């Protein structure tokens, strides 16, 4: 009998990274994705905040223009009033004062004057 021959053991070459290498690569990819995602989110939030601030400034400017126009309209109407009449109406008010109060009421009803502005102008008219 012939002695048994042993076959040589052939070790297959490795194909790809080891388990630790694969885990390290995955960790790097996930970490990079997290950093990029956080940076993008931060930039989006900053852009949204800037847009909101710009919109608020624009709204404030528009409100200031509306207020100025309303005050100018009141001033023009007050200047357009005819000279006070010497005759007194019932209740101690002149016809000029009555006309001014009626115009103020019309402005308040149309929304040009607020309640506070109406009361302030009414007090001026009644004090005169």
Structure notes:
With 128 residues, this protein is mainly alpha-helical. The protein has one domain. The chain is 70% helix and 0% strand. It is built from three helices and no strands. Helix 2 packs antiparallel against helix 3. The longest helix is centred in the middle third of the chain and has 61 residues, at 19-79. It is rod-shaped and about 145 Å long. The N and C termini lie far apart (141 Å). The mean pLDDT is 81.
Q: Number of helical runs?
A: 3
Distance between the termini: 141 Å
Number of domains: 1
Biggest sheet character: none
**Which strand-content bin applies to the residues?**
under 5%
Radius of gyration over all CA atoms, rounded: 42 Å
What does the secondary structure layout of this molecule look like, with pairings?
Elements: H1 19-79, H2 95-110, H3 115-127
Helix pairs in contact: 2-3
């Amino acid at each position: 009998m012939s002695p048994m021959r042993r076959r040589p053991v052939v070790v297959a070459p490795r194909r790809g990274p080891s388990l630790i290498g694969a885990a390290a690569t995955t960790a790097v990819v996930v970490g990079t994705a997290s950093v990029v995602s956080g940076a993008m989110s931060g930039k989006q939030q900053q852009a949204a905040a800037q847009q909101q601030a710009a919109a608020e400034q624009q709204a404030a400017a528009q409100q200031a223009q509306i207020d100025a126009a309303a005050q100018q309209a009141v001033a023009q109407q007050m200047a357009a009033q005819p000279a006070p009449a010497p005759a007194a109406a019932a209740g101690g008010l002149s016809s000029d004062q009555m006309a001014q109060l009626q115009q103020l009421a019309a402005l308040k009803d149309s929304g040009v004057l607020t309640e506070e502005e109406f009361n302030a102008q009414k007090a001026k008219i009644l004090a005169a």
